[in-house]
Amino acid sequence: MANKKEPAPGWPIVSGEYVVGNPESCVGVVTLGSHGLEQACIEAGAAIAGPCHTENLGIEKVVANYISNPNIRFMILCGSEVQGHITGQCFKALWENGIDDSGQIIGAKGAIPFLENVDKDAVERFRRQIVEVIDLIDCEDIGKITQAIKECLSKDPGAIDEDPYIIQLEGGGGEEEGKEGVVKPITPEIAIVESRIRLIGAEMGYNGLLAKWQSGYYNGKIQGIAAGLFIMLVFLGILML
Fold it and tell me: How many domains does the chain have?
């Protein structure tokens, strides 16, 4: 029988829309933008299952709950991909590549893939603990998802040989205003707007540089013509003398 460990007291330590099953299970399921799949995942044997919409605070909450339970060794990504955030791809990039010094998920394609409350040590613990990420992104087929859960259970390597890693997330109150460790998630719409604003700002900067170049080119052209006319007049004046 695979070796098991006690998760952190009060696990899951961060609130969310998830459903909790057997805390000794080796499988965690993220249903991304889909709802209604959680209970079937729990019945199939998952430790925890729930959606995750954002590629920053949402991912932080999932990481915090996973690494505070050493028994979770597999992550299944399923359900519809979240447009704009591309959260499923960001999870894969986090597990494969980690984060850089600024907290950006290396190789992530989401709108704002930055982790502000989860440091490199926590990310590396997550990468060590999760031995496999199963990609069922955009799959809502309960049969395929439950089959993947059962396959992971059959390969259970036991708990990671490390104690629960507890993260105290900071930030706004969110759904449970004022409770410690609760972050206020960014809605998909807001994140997309913020991303568009950054892109517009970059375009404005580029257009400003282009306008300066065009202005300089135009002024230089006028000055060149004026200088040419002056030289020609001087040359003609000399010839007429």
Answer: 2
